[in-house]
Amino acid sequence: MPLQPDGKTLPMLTLTQGHLRQLEICPRRYQYTYIDHYNAPIDPAMAERQRWGTQFHLVMQQRDLELPVDDLLQADPDLEMAVSSLQAAAPDLFIPQPKGFRQSEHRRTLAFNGYGLTAIYDLLVMDATSGHIVDWKTYQTPSSKTQLAQEWQTRLYLYLLVETSDLPPEQVAMTYWFVAPPGAQADPQPPSSVTIAYTAAQHRRTQADLQRLTDRLTALLALNDDLPQVDSALGHCTHCPYVVRCQRASERYAMAGGVELPAIADIAEVPL
Ligand code: SF4
What we know:
Layout: E1 13-15, H1 17-25, H2 27-35, H3 44-64, H4 70-74, H5 77-89, E2 101-112, E3 115-126, E4 131-137, H6 145-150, H7 152-163, E5 172-178, E6 192-197, H8 200-222, H9 251-255
Parallel strand pairs: 1-3, 4-5
Antiparallel strand pairs: 2-3, 3-4, 5-6
The chain binds iron/sulfur cluster.
């Protein structure tokens, strides 16, 4: 790993929700993805869903910037249907906020324990008394509220908004909108949403977990060696694209003749 040549200080590493998630699951997985930049195998259908998700995000951003989107929508009727169904389900999201702050693809960063914590919100809507983060998910089945509240995306995004604004935790929230991609189901459902509220206790817990994770990463990087692999008994390896590289493919897995692909939630629609 390209770490600490001649003992010089490295530039501040960026940590996004994706970094934190992988770091928590398995430090080696974080290393392979974000330090070594190994390409994980990807199923063509998943690659197409990723491409479509990126297009959806682009349309939503351009709409918000009042840039033309007709060409993009005309080229892809599924995209047009997805945007119009979201507009019908959540008309308030499409109304400009002349008195407040509203920005698509809004970036926030915070120096924390030697790292640059970074989030890019699909949409941020704020005024003097509230802050609302909106995230588009281009898969149809919503995760449960409990599951979403525990995701690093939710935790980091809310934490950063509180730390970089004057708003207390109770005045910020995050909403995930789930929009069906083409061919998701025979009977596509209209977009649905899950909103996560925030509290001071959750904020303190996230801060403590960020401290723990960044302390650990600093200690591991100082060893200037491969980062440790997770205990295989925890079951993360069977869902990991690096299972072959790590020589952790089970016999059953090898007999299946393939590599298990990342969960769809791992697909980054917007590079971070
Ligand atoms: S296969 Fe297991 S040990 Fe290797 S990177 Fe993936 S999760 Fe970590």
